[in-house]
Amino acid sequence: MRKYILLTSLLLSICCYSQFSDYNNTIGFACGGAGSSTPIIKKTYSLLNTKKYSKFIEMLYSKNSAENFLGVVVSEILKKKKLIVLSQKDLNRISELYNSDTEVEFCSGCSDFGFEKISKMLNQTDKAKMREEAEIEINSIFKK
Predict the structure, then answer these.
(1) How far is CA 129 from the centre of its chain?
(2) 28 exposed, middle or buried (CB, 10 Å; 0-12, 13-18, 19+)?
């Protein structure tokens, strides 16, 4: 029985994590069989907890689409909370990203994963509602 449970756990892990092309840059707050955050989300939490807010402005200009998505969502939250000031250049970049066809890899649980355009994720027209989930998770950090 113990071997069966171990084998089942191993197979589920392989199924849940082998589906990603780049797990380190996948947007996922409760990802895979374990329901844990992906590395880029953990990095986001770390930057927020250490108050390195300017890093999110840098993410707007990254070549990494996951960083672009997080840069927009977090920068907009930080701006509302008056924790950062965005320049006109930054605001223009955010507008560009709202219209971007660049895709971001995402996951929500073990069965909902794939790629979605940044524009759909930012405008909340994606089926996984990643922006909504991101805002809830990020705002929860400020409530601690």
Answers:
(1) 11
(2) buried
